[in-house]
Every structure is written in structure tokens, then in C-alpha cells.
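Incident log entry.

Two folding requests arrived from the same account within the same minute. Monitoring flagged them as a possible duplicate submission, but the sequences differ. Recording both here for audit purposes.

Request one:
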Amino acid sequence: MRKTFLPLLGTLTAALMAANFSLAIPITGSVDFSGGASLNGTTLDNATQVLTWTSVNVTPFGVTIGSALDSTINPGDAVAMTGPWSFNSGRSALWMVGGFVFDLQTSGVIEQTVDFISVKGYGMLSGNGFDPTPGTWFFTSQGAGIGNGNFSFSAATLAQTTAVPDGGTTALLFGAACIGLVVSTRRKSLVV
């Protein structure tokens, strides 16, 4: 009995250590911005990038209430934007607010006319002790330029949490299967 119990105890201990019960905490929610952007074109149909950003703030209802982003981002907060940004490329630290940073990895124009542009991109949202979380970036501008390529814009970033952490359940099930295998092997060796 003692010879059977010690390997089982060792296997169970290893399984529990592997589980470690560490939970991944992804960023949840979305945040919306608005402000000004100086584009390299005088109309939206010939613009290819934002040269500089001006007066970018979180919109009045721009943070998902009760989300991870809501923990430190408030409506009206100033947003630090990094420029220049080409519509068909990524940009590290594209925006920063409330201790969160969004690194845009890739983006592309969805629609572009003389008075409208829509750009969509993907990147990684991180900050405030949360696990880096994939996010989607949306940028739109419409209407005539204020002059010399200055346009108003709106943008949003949506955290894309698709994976749900299991809290070590998989490792525990694997450990239980190992224990079952050891017990089964021991019983067969006693019968022979």
C-alpha cells in the first residue's frame, strides 16, 4: 500500500504545482476618442496618414462602465497620441491614457471618399497590471477639412477578449488522469 501511495502523492503534488492557480486577467471594455488630426492631404480621398493629433479626449460616454478600462479612464481625459501614423501600417504606442497603452500592429483603409474615411486596425492593449489583450482600432473622419488638411475625427478601441482562463482546471484534470493511469498500472501488475 505504501509503495502505491507515494507515487500517487508525488503525481498529485506535481499536478497541483503545474496548475499554480494563476488567473490571466485580460482587459475588458472599449474606449472612444475624438479630436483633431492634421492629415497629409487636403481632402480625405487623397490622405494617407495623420501627421499630428490635436485636442484628443475621451468622449463623454466613451468608456464601457464596469470594464477594466473604466478603472482608470474617465470621460474628458486627455489622450496622448503618437504621430505620424500611416493608415496602412502599425504604430507602437499609438495612444496612451489612464495607464493604458495601445500598440497598433496593423491597419488598413476600409472606405475612402472625398468626404469620408474609415480605417480599421488590430493591436495589443496593455497596462495597469492587466494581461496584454488583443484590441481592434477604428478611425473615422468625415466632412470637409478645416483648412490645410485639418480634420476632426473619432476613434474607438475595443478589447477583444476571446480566450477564457481556466484557472488551472486543465492541469488538475491532467493530474487526475495521471493518477488514474498509475493506479490502473499498479492493479494490473498485482494481478499478474
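Request two (distinct sequence, not a duplicate):
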Amino acid sequence: MRKSINTTIFCKKLRLQAGEKLLDVGCGWGGMMFYAAKQYGAKCVGYTLSKNQYDYVNEKIEREGWGDSVKIVLDDYRRISGVFDKFVSIGMFEHVGKKYYPEFFGMIKKALKPRGIGVLHTIGSQTGKAADPWIARYIFPGGFVPALGMVSDAMNGGGLVFYDIEDLRMHYAKTLDLWRNNLANNAIAVKKIVSRDLADSVRAENFYRMWQLYLNASAVSFKTAGNRLYQIVFTNGADNSLPLTRDYIYRF
């Protein structure tokens, strides 16, 4: 239920309508696309660099008959083609790197139709920072957590217009607590799977402890406001017809 509500919020923020073309950059395992296609009748195209994700989504498209509504492309966002009504990127922007921000938002400007709506969901920080060396080595190589001003400067420089911004940091802190608890409650099963894949029980124990440490530290960083979680709604050029309040999002 929680997952469907979260995905519904994205669709509401996009003001998604049947038949619209949705571009999902960093589409992961396709959850956003399949939900948008099923519940809203959208035509979805996702981009990923993961072969595993690409194969999984294609298998699901074929198995469940989504060929007319969902497509996934194994390619870099800089080679996106086509024009779309709506744009979404969830948890991918942290991996773009700040020197590539102008190129990233330039891609959106080119791909999104005039006055089209986009939602950017990204972890942020107070000042903008590269990932901690330990996290960069073991969890998120090359990660960079932007300050909100970095995003706004690059977005505005690309001709995109802010519409609404929410900081959901305490929501994410609670999420991390749940993930940590789920990991602890399934410790034996997790270690067994990792031990099988790595053929090494010691490395499996280290893997488990590493992720416990990461989830605990991350939860603390959100609770103390060291990290943020931004959902930024924007348009390709100004659109004065959009709602003046958030009732359209949170009234169910």
C-alpha cells in the first residue's frame, strides 16, 4: 500500500493524463512506469544503464503484455531522443555529478514539450558534498549530494521553472529505519544469500554489517538535517494555469 501511495503522489504531481508520454530517467526496475501505465494510461519510456534492470523490465513487458505502453532503453540519458509530455527521475540525480548538471537539464529542456511538467526526486544536503569516502567505495561510487541552490541554479540556467519543492527528509529517515529493521529481522536469510553468491561466509558477515552501518548512519544524517530529500516539481517554461495549492496532490 505504501508503495502505491508514493507512486500515486508522483503521478499527481505530474498531473499525469491518459495517453501522455512519460520519460523516466534512471527508471530502475520499472515500478513507476508500470504503475503510470496501468493506473493512468500513460505511454512510458525509461532509460537505464543497468543490464539487469533492462532485462527484468523487458521480461515483465513481454510476460504481462505491456508492449504498447512501456518501453525501456539501455542507454545514457545524453542520447535520449523524442519529445515527452512529462518527465520524472527518482533517485538518479545523485549520480550525475555536478559538472554535468547543465547537460542533464539541457537534456530535459530538449525532451520535455513546452509547459510540460517534470518531477526530480533527489537526496540533497545543506552545502553540497561528495559521498563520504567509505560510502563512495562500498555503497555509491561517484555519488554527489547537491545543495538545493546548486539544483536551482542549474535548472534555471537550463530554462526550466520551479513550481513546487518539498523536503521529505523525515519521511526518508523513517524509511531508513524500516529498511534497517527489515535487514536485522532477516539477517540469517540475507547472510545465506550473500554467502552463496560470494562463496565466502566471512565476506557475507562483513556485507551484512556494512549495510547495517550504512542504514544507521544514513538515518541519523536525515534526522539531524545533514541530508535532505527533495521533490522538485518544475515546468519547461512558465505555466500560470497550474493549481495554487497542493490540494490536487494530497486530497484522496
